[in-house]
Design goal:
Strand content: 15-25%
Number of strands: 7
CATH superfamily of the largest domain: RNA-binding S4 domain
Largest sheet: 5 strands, antiparallel
Structural class: alpha+beta
Length: 142
């Protein structure tokens, strides 16, 4: 009989019933629309667990871990509350984590700043009525 060499242990082998792969958890918690997008964020250094940068998609995440996610200029700091290997409705996804109050406040401030910038610098053509008012202000009547 042919003997097989001992199997190397991988991150997926170290996943226990009380832990879950990071990319799967991010997807199930609805931070990313697909596991592929979660994996790209992890590979790009946009995710940290307990203050440590994560370079592997299969890193185990457990309840009690603090996960920091940077996405679209926003920074989410969440405490892992639960695990779910399947993606479910948003109400179930929100039960998987609790965002820190500091993170909520910072995201609210960033959103207000972005909203103010959009109002000052619109990226669209003014409506017909607004254009007529602007022409009147400039003294052009055509």
């Amino acid at each position: 009989m042919k003997k097989h060499p001992p199997k190397k242990t991988t991150a997926a082998d170290r996943i226990t019933p009380d832990s879950q792969r990071l990319d799967t958890w991010l997807w199930a918690a609805r931070f990313f629309k697909t596991r592929q997008l979660a994996s790209v964020a992890i590979d790009g250094g946009k995710v940290e667990i307990n203050g440590q940068g994560v370079s592997k998609r299969g890193k185990a995440v457990r309840p009690g871990d603090r996960v920091t996610i940077t996405k679209s200029g926003m920074r989410f700091v969440v405490d892992v509350e639960g695990l779910n290997p399947k993606r479910g409705p948003a109400s179930e996804a929100q039960a998987l984590y609790r965002e820190t109050p500091e993170s909520l406040e910072k995201r609210r401030l960033v959103a207000e700043q972005q909203r103010a910038e959009r109002e000052l610098n619109p990226h669209h053509k003014p409506a017909k009525q607004a254009r007529a008012l602007l022409r009147a202000l400039r003294g052009k009547s055509f």
